[in-house]
Design a protein that fits this description.
Distance between the termini: 26 Å
Strand content: 15-25%
Number of strands: 21
Helix content: 25-40%
Structural class: alpha+beta
Strand order of the largest sheet: 1-20-19-15-14-9-8
Number of domains: 1
Shape: globular
Largest sheet: 7 strands, antiparallel
Length: about 550
């Protein structure tokens, strides 16, 4: 990466990057990014802006996140204008309820973790994430930060095109799969006129406004140890759920030490397991052993695909809550193990299997302020709207993160009471020689580490600016030797991959290839350069 704003690109960028000095907010919805920008204008810092933006996204993008979901954050707190500072990690994911066990799920007739209903519901961490970030690093009053989201929910907003399409898709899925009292509230809340709202129509959620107000007034205490917790507990008991008030009352988000890997002259930072950021780090470590390649180079693309397959196979075998992992992070990232795995990358595609080290969708946003503080923040209900469970009268859509658990007792990620599952949502952050470059993220389930790797290599190896790096067509490993690839990739490159044994699946629908945001800061000038996702209704707001 020659500078944060390099732009030697073989692909025309769909839009120009944005530049600013005093602050920037990149998010997947214009309403939300503008709210974050307004918070900066009121004297808030990057953390305040992230909280306000995240709260607004639960209103305007319920297809990807909600009050009943999880969150993670990487927070850079600047010490000077030269990019020196410290990176902090916040894990606000929740565990399985104390009464939810592998045996209980099997006794209920399930051979694997279901996707809908109460069974996959884990303790939500998002409200606690907002409150904890505000308590430790915020400048403005917490209620001030949530006020714009409350107003949006109460007064309403215009539904954007991409959200309308996702809303309609999820409604169709829910009508086929949901029934019974536990999930009836989803239709009451999110299809109040009998159908998903169309693009350009007005939508309100007064119940959610009241819930956000209670969270704002109590700094999330109501959600975990107050009236909202009581309502969640009562509805769970009434409709056969496992979640209890005691699970909520004992919940606390956790400050964690971020993990990193060096790639060329930069360091990519991720949240440690149970997040899947480790997959991105392993893939970049594998690729760092080869010289940089142009984007249209068949050999370079083949290596990327093989490196991602190897890293993901290990991740799916070993990643779970860190205290339950039988393989250590440092062993999976060690030189010896990476070299062993790299030796498997040959001229032809392989069907990867996990190695043996030493024994032992979602919304993403990025914010930055005039002082050099930056936040990489992600929150999710896991699968679209989540489990389909909505607590009546609250607008709280409960996540279905527990779907990620295995019921195999020999698997590292096997379900256990009070355990956190393999987590797909991962914020990323780039530094160079210990100085901040900035936040990046690509939301979208298992696409996320793949998106991190592609955006980083686009910027570092191809010299693309943040916007061009996001605009460039993407690929994703889909299991075995199957690779999904966006139709904008040159046909000659697709054929070259097929000749190497990859089963190429050209996709014309870009919704499955992730939606990202990037903000980079030039340590010498303090100027920010931001890019936002062309595959959704994204926007950057600057101060």
């Amino acid at each position: 990466m020659r500078t944060p704003f390099s732009d030697s690109t073989p692909y025309p960028s769909r839009r120009s990057p944005m530049y600013a000095r005093d602050g920037m907010v990149a998010a997947s919805q214009p309403h939300a990014s503008q709210i974050g920008r307004d918070i900066l204008a009121q004297g808030g810092n990057a953390v305040d802006a992230a909280i306000a933006t995240a709260a607004a996204l639960t209103v305007v993008e319920p297809t990807g996140c909600g009050i009943g979901g999880d969150a993670f954050a990487l927070v850079w707190i600047a010490e000077d204008e030269q990019g020196n500072g410290e990176l902090h990690g916040l894990d606000a994911s929740g565990a399985a309820p104390a009464s939810l066990s592998r045996e209980a799920v099997r006794e209920a007739g399930h051979e694997k973790m279901p996707l809908y209903g109460w069974t996959p519901v884990t303790v939500p961490g998002t409200p606690a994430a907002w409150a904890e970030l505000s308590r430790r690093f915020g400048k403005l009053d917490f209620a001030t930060l949530l006020a714009p989201a409350i107003r949006l929910a109460d007064e309403g907003f215009v539904v954007s095109p991409m959200i309308a399409s996702l809303w309609a898709r999820d409604e169709a899925v829910f009508r086929r799969n949901l029934s019974g009292e536990a999930t009836r509230g989803w239709f009451d809340t999110f299809t109040p006129k009998g159908r998903a709202p169309r693009a350009g129509t007005w939508h309100r959620c007064v119940d959610q406004a009241r819930t956000l107000a209670a969270i704002a007034e109590t700094q999330a205490e109501s959600f975990y140890r107050g009236e909202l917790a009581e309502r969640i507990d009562a509805f769970s008991r009434q409709t056969g759920g496992y979640l209890r008030g005691s699970d909520l009352a004992t919940y606390r988000p956790e400050w964690v030490t971020p993990i990193s890997a060096r790639y060329r002259d930069v360091e990519l930072w991720e949240i440690p397991p149970s997040g899947q950021g480790l997959v991105a780090l392993m893939a970049l470590r594998l690729l760092d052993g080869y010289p940089p390649a142009l984007r249209d180079d068949p050999e370079g693309l083949h290596r990327q695909l093989e490196a991602m397959k190897l890293a993901f196979t290990d991740g799916q075998a070993y990643i779970t809550e860190s205290r339950h992992m039988r393989q250590r992070v440092e062993d999976l990232l060690s030189d010896a193990y990476i070299e062993k795995r790299r030796a498997l990358i040959g001229e032809q595609a392989i069907d990867p299997i996990p190695g043996q080290p030493a024994a032992g969708g979602t919304v993403y946003l990025a914010t930055a302020d005039r002082d050099g503080n930056m936040v990489s923040f992600i929150q999710s209900n896991y699968h679209g709207f989540g489990s389909g469970v909505v607590v009546p009268g609250t607008g709280i859509a409960m996540q279905n993160r527990g779907h990620g658990f295995s019921l195999d007792p020999d698997h590292d990620n096997c379900l256990a009471p009070g355990k956190k599952t393999f987590h797909t949502i991962i914020p990323g952050f780039l530094t160079r020689n210990g100085k901040a470059l900035g936040p990046l993220g690509v939301m979208g389930g298992f696409m996320q580490p793949q998106g991190h790797v592609q955006v980083v290599t686009n910027m570092v190896d191809a010299g693309l600016n943040p916007q061009a790096a996001l605009d460039a067509p993407r690929w994703q490993w889909m299991g075995g030797r199957t690779i999904g690839i966006e139709h904008a990739y040159p046909a000659s490159l697709v054929r070259a991959m097929a000749e190497r044994g990859h089963l190429m699946k050209v996709e014309h629908d870009s919704r499955g290839f992730g939606r990202g945001q990037v903000i980079l800061r030039d340590p010498e000038t303090g100027i920010y350069c931001g890019g936002t996702e062309p595959r959704t209704d994204a926007n950057i707001a600057v101060l």
